[in-house]
Design brief:
Radius of gyration: 30 Å
Helix content: 25-40%
Shape: globular
Largest sheet: 7 strands, mixed
Number of strands: 27
Strand content: 15-25%
Number of helices: 20
Distance between the termini: 59 Å
């Protein structure tokens, strides 16, 4: 039988020995064997730090994003092969879409967000410039730079593709190499995914490594620059978090653990309402998708006491229609668990839950299957229970399979109390059309949850559902859920970077951040900066234009032309009574318009378009008779990797004849590279 390979230190490694067998979850047939015997873990980490890290850090955020996008496209071409492998883990085609397409979607998502939200640079500026002195010669700002270690990513068995990719994507964008260690049960899928990624030729050497099999002494060799991202049981998370090397070196550790997620049905959602139907449909979907083997699945369904029987009946009727069996059969809607050991673990947990209640649908040991052997394959009936909410078991025992427990509650406060007894969850949902109930419950349970979905008739058609983590939103939760966060857009990227406060003069800070800072030198020349291409333009290039006198006729014409007849511009008596103005003032947008007229270079040239203003503030009122002068300075230059132009951010400062700033803002333009 073939042995799964690892990819470490720049080569594929096939272990000696027999290894541990891996079985097809549907047929019980042995697929492969797995072992990490013979891998030098210290050398693998060193390879990532010494080879992968420098290669990634040579690239800008945008260049990494372009590679990530190309990698996603490459994997998308191999989806059919990956679907077939996924089916051997017991996954239906719909389940495989979650894992395969979901993982590819994370790569696309991070590629897009990085291009939009990060500079085409190697350093990320975090937050505004902080003035640290009265004269403005001493300022501070936070920067984020990639850690110089390896992101060790220990993944769970239930999502062998999405799991590794949702950890890999933010690390790659940050410029930190990854070492992926999949769970053994489904490592044959991860091995193929990594093989495709490495075979694409897109990844710098050392940026991605794979350890198939046990972790061995991997954690013993971690340094203060390495990271660990773990998905799995809370007990294993505690064990890894307290590893002596992790503690000694303060290794950045993130855990996403099992949790007793809840869904709460609002009292308004009685039988016959859209919300009642949505609740039941979502509950059944979360029980049966991936055979309930989702860290985000609904384990506790909190229902108003008066609706408990109605929900039990409706959910049971829907569950009875779920066809279980071989995913290759098109009629099958729920496949097998990952393996026979996993099935026995779920049965043990079910027996513990029965101490608090009773089964209203399903069975511990009896299941009807299609095109499969119910005993050789890891099949289990969906099991819906009804329990006393005051018992401890429903709030402490997780059956990691197609299992959920109905729990009655009295009122909103009681529902919040029960939700909190889960001691920290990845996700919760509230199904209601009652705004007051939704607000009370969301604010009440938020401290115990990493993500909350409010589902109703208004968002149901476009909702991604209770159990779907998204790249833009955090995935993780407090307490039992591990106390960590993954993804969350740029939050996931910044987790792999060190935030550092830099204190310096404006000139030095501008050089470090590659952004012009107020107080830094400006450069004026005979060539207007709008006449310079991106290649010629330099940060600090500036133009001073003006003055222009603002007249009463200007104010009145602008009011008539635009329709903005606010009293402060036209009514002297009313404006004089306003303590902020004390008399008629010019429109703020008139000031901005005059500034544009002053600094613009009108002839065709490198500037293609002005596509926005940001951070606009009107600092001091402009009165008729004031003289306006504008200083425009190139603040940040961002070439676009796949276009023949880039973005230039300009600092605009409009002052009056007293030297007082009346308006400050950023102007965004698109400028050709040549």
């Amino acid at each position: 039988m073939a042995m799964l390979r690892s990819y470490v230190s720049g080569r594929w490694h096939t272990p000696d020995g027999e290894g541990a067998p891996l079985h097809d979850a549907v047929t019980g047939e042995e697929i492969a064997r797995i072992s990490s015997r013979g891998i030098d873990m210290a050398a693998a980490l060193d390879h990532g730090r010494r080879v992968g890290g420098p290669a990634l850090r040579e690239l800008t955020f945008h260049q990494r994003a372009a590679l990530l996008k190309a990698l996603a496209s490459h994997l998308r071409e191999h989806r059919d092969e990956l679907y077939a492998l996924s089916a051997r883990s017991g996954a239906t085609r719909t389940d495989s879409l979650i894992d395969v397409d979901g993982g590819i979607g994370v790569l696309f998502g991070y590629a897009s967000k990085a291009k939009r939200e990060l500079p085409n640079d190697r350093v990320h500026v975090d937050g505004p410039v902080e003035p640290l002195s009265r004269g403005g010669t001493f300022v501070g700002r936070h920067i984020a730079t990639p850690l110089r270690g390896v992101a060790v990513q220990i993944n769970a068995f239930n999502f062998p593709m999405w799991g590794p990719l949702e950890k890999f994507a933010p690390a790659f964008i940050a410029g930190v190499p990854s070492l992926v260690k999949p769970a053994s049960q489904t490592a044959y899928i991860t091995e193929r995914v990594v093989g495709l990624m490495l075979g694409s030729g897109l990844l710098p050497e050392g940026s991605l490594q794979l350890v198939s099999g046990g972790a061995g002494d991997l954690l013993d060799h971690l340094t203060e620059q390495d990271l660990v991202g773990f998905t799995g049981s809370a007990s294993t998370a505690r064990l890894l978090r307290t590893h002596p090397t992790v503690i000694r070196n303060s290794v950045r550790f993130n855990a996403e653990a099992d949790s007793l997620n809840c869904s709460i049905l609002g009292p308004d959602a009685v039988a016959g309402t859209p919300e009642f139907d949505l609740f039941v449909k979502q509950l059944v979907a979360e029980m049966t998708a991936k055979a309930g083997q989702k860290c985000t699945a609904i384990r506790r369904a909190l229902v108003p006491a008066g609706l408990l029987d109605a929900v039990a009946e409706a959910a049971s009727a829907r569950l009875a229609k779920v066809v279980i069996g071989n995913p290759a059969n098109e009629t099958v809607r729920m496949g097998a668990l990952a393996g026979l050991e996993q099935r026995e673990e779920v049965r043990r947990s079910l027996k513990a839950l029965l101490a608090a209640g009773e089964i209203v649908h399903g069975s511990l040991d009896r299941v009807d299957v299609v095109d499969a052997d119910a005993e050789r394959g890891a099949f289990l009936s969906p099991v819906l229970l009804k329990a006393d909410p005051d018992h401890a078991e429903p709030h402490e025992v997780e059956a990691f399979g197609p299992v959920s427990t109905l729990l009655p509650y009295r009122d909103a406060a009681h529902a919040v109390e029960l939700a909190a007894r889960g001691a920290g969850s990845l996700v919760g949902s509230v199904v209601t059309h009652d705004l007051d109930f939704a607000r009370e419950v969301v604010l009440g349970v938020a401290p115990w949850h990493g993500r909350l979905l409010v589902l109703d008739r208004d968002d149901a058609k476009e909702s991604t559902g209770h159990g779907s983590p998204l790249p833009a939103l955090v995935h993780g939760g407090p307490g039992r859920a591990g106390g960590g966060e993954e993804m969350g857009g740029m939050r996931g990227v910044l987790h792999h970077m060190q935030r550092t406060a830099v204190q310096a003069s404006p000139r030095v800070l501008g050089a470090v951040t590659n952004q012009w800072v107020t107080g830094a030198p400006r450069r004026e020349s005979d060539v207007h900066p709008f006449r310079k291409s991106l290649r010629e333009l330099r940060i600090g290039d500036s133009v001073v234009a003006g003055p222009r006198v603002v007249t009463m006729a200007d104010v009145e014409h602008f009011a008539e032309f635009t329709g903005d007849t606010f009293y402060a511009h036209l009514d002297q008596e009313a404006a004089a009574a306003n303590p902020f103005f004390g008399g008629r003032v010019a429109h703020g947008y008139l000031v901005v318009s005059f500034a544009a007229g002053l600094f613009v270079s009108p002839e065709p040239g490198p500037v293609l378009a002005n596509y926005g203003l940001e951070n606009l503030r009107f600092v001091t009122p402009t009165f008729p008779g004031d003289e306006l002068t504008v200083t425009l300075t190139a603040k940040q230059i961002t070439p676009r990797e796949d276009q023949d132009y880039g973005e230039v951010r300009w600092d605009a400062d409009v002052v009056n004849q007293k030297g007082e700033s009346v308006a400050k803002y950023d102007v965004l333009t698109l400028v050709t590279k040549e």
